[in-house]
Amino acid sequence: MARPRKFDEDRVLLAVRDEFWDKGYAATSLEDLLRVSGLGKGSLYGAFGDKHHLFLRVLRDYDDANLSMLRERLESAPRGIDLVRAFVLSPAADPTGAVARRGCLLANSNAELATSTPEVAAEARRSYAAITAILTEALERARREGDLSPDADPGETARTVLVAQLGLIALGRTGMDIDTLTAAAQTALARLLPALPPQ
After folding, report:
1. DSSP character at residue 121
2. Contacts of 141 (CB under 8 A, 6+ apart)
3. What is the pLDDT of residues 99-136, one digit of tens each?
């Protein structure tokens, strides 16, 4: 009979996630994972599998949490366009620039591993498709609410919005000045979602 686990699984997964997020997959050693989790090798791998499987688990958990948050924000947004604007501006939302320099775990991992790790590329495709679907829904709502041109294609616009945000994440990772990053985000929004003339 297996012994019950004597650790907080959520705490361990968050600690491991943050280690991968801060260092990247390749630079995170088994010793790092044991240190931040507080577990022995047998307990860590017994519960979650090897480093590869542990990483895929925390990446999926991270993506699912982000998708859930994005969905909740759409449901609570006063207008659909508000979610889209906040999404594009999010890489520059922290005035200290720390969030921009850290980047996004999914974007960072995709850049590091997509060509060598098919599971990471597949997870990125899954997550980006789900984000695009939520953005499309927000833009369809924005069109109904009169905040998006009736001629705009919500699906194509959603994909372009995602591309713009990923570009801003990449620029933020370089340490770009936060004011410059914010200006770039605002310019992208002005091009993607131009203000409609008053009715």
Report:
1. H
2. 74, 79, 80
3. 999 999 999 999 999 999 999 999 999 999 999 999 99
Q: Are 21 and 105 in contact (CB under 8 A)?
A: yes
pTM higher than 0.90, yes or no?
A: yes
- Two structure tokens written together for 74: 């759409």
Cβ burial 34-62 (10 Å sphere, 16+ → b, else e)? bebbebeeebbbebbeebeebbbbbbeeb
CB proximity list for 97: less than 8 A, separation 6 or greater: 172, 175, 177, 178, 181
Separation CA 28–CA 115 (nearest Å): 19
CA 127 distance to own-chain centroid: 9
Which tokens in the block code for residue 170? 């990449």
Q: Give Cβ neighbours of residue 61 (< 8 Å, ≥ 6 apart).
A: 13, 17
**Quick one: tokens of 22?**
């801060």
Q: Is 194 helix (H, G, I), strand (E, B) or coil?
A: coil
Task: Quickly count: other Cβ atoms within 10 Å of residue 16's Cβ.
Answer: 24
Biggest distance spanned by C-alpha atoms of the chain: 71
